[in-house]
């Protein structure tokens, strides 16, 4: 496997038990493909510094809501972090170094900064992959409160989450329990990469779209739709042997897929039908 050094570091970080993956490191290795001179330690130190500064202002009573109040004051009042409403689909919003430097991000990357600092003050939090919007919540039994890092650390309850979904989708949405289930570290990283995939696809930057999909497949080798998409991108970029391998794998796994006739025609073109 001929991987860039950033890709190798990413691969090494994710190929260990999920609970041992360092989310901040892995996210910085994602960014390092965009910024080859990026020094991850510099940004890990920045998170450490933030945590040290928050510790100095923590209340004596470490109730979750009091801790969230302190974190919110620090992030949104002192450091001026905010959601990038005006340029939401800028890829920079998905790179942890840019988010730390510019204090701007999207729900998942602002959640990552918040979560990483919270961990460093012994206030563990987990990511919540709600459809269309990413939240975090304290990883404490029976504490059913959610934090919206994109909206200045707004504290939400399950009913608020349901209302937010109804508002986003402009129709009543049933709040299925899995909508508020914690995501694994791998799923957290996949969501960052999926955002980049669709941003670059919209920009018609196929090489960067491919780079995002390749890393998704490193995370989840059995994500067969991503294998298909990687094959289609290889085809578009003229990497025909790799395209044929992926498209054959896709058909072998889902021979009755709705798009199987299209894939077979491509394989015929490649002499692999």
TrEMBL record:
- Pfam families reported in the protein's UniProt record: TPR_9, Transglut_core2
Species: Halotia branconii CENA392
Which residue numbers delimit the Protein SirB1 N-terminal domain?
42-193
Which InterPro entries did the record assign? Answer: SirB1_N, TPR-like_helical_dom_sf
Family affiliation: Belongs to the UPF0162 family.
Q: What is this protein called?
A: SirB1 family protein
């Amino acid at each position: 496997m001929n991987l860039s050094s950033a890709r190798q570091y990413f691969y090494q970080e994710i190929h260990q038990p999920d609970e041992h993956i360092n989310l901040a490191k892995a996210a910085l290795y994602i960014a390092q493909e965009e910024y080859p001179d990026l020094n991850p330690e510099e940004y890990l130190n920045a998170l450490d510094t933030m945590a040290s500064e928050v510790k100095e202002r923590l209340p004596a009573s470490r109730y979750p809501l009091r801790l969230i109040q302190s974190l919110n004051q620090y992030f949104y009042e002192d450091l001026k972090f905010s959601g990038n409403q005006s340029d939401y689909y800028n890829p920079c919003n998905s790179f942890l170094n840019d988010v730390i430097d510019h204090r701007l991000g999207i729900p998942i990357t602002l959640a990552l900064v918040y979560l990483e600092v919270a961990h460093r003050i012994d206030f563990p939090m987990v990511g919540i992959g709600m459809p269309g919007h990413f939240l975090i919540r304290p990883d404490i039994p029976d504490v059913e409160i959610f934090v919206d890092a994109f909206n200045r650390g707004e504290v939400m309850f399950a009913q608020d989450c349901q209302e937010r979904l109804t508002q986003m989708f402009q129709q009543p949405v049933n709040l299925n329990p899995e909508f508020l289930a914690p995501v694994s570290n791998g799923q957290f990283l996949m969501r960052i990469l999926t955002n980049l995939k669709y941003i670059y696809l919209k920009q018609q930057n196929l090489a960067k779209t491919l780079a995002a999909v390749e890393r998704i497949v490193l995370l989840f080798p059995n994500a067969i739709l991503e294998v298909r998409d990687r094959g289609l991108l290889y085809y578009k970029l003229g990497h025909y042997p790799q395209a044929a391998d992926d498209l054959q794998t896709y058909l072998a796994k889902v021979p009755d897929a709705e798009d199987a006739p299209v894939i077979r025609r491509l394989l015929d073109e490649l002499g692999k039908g």
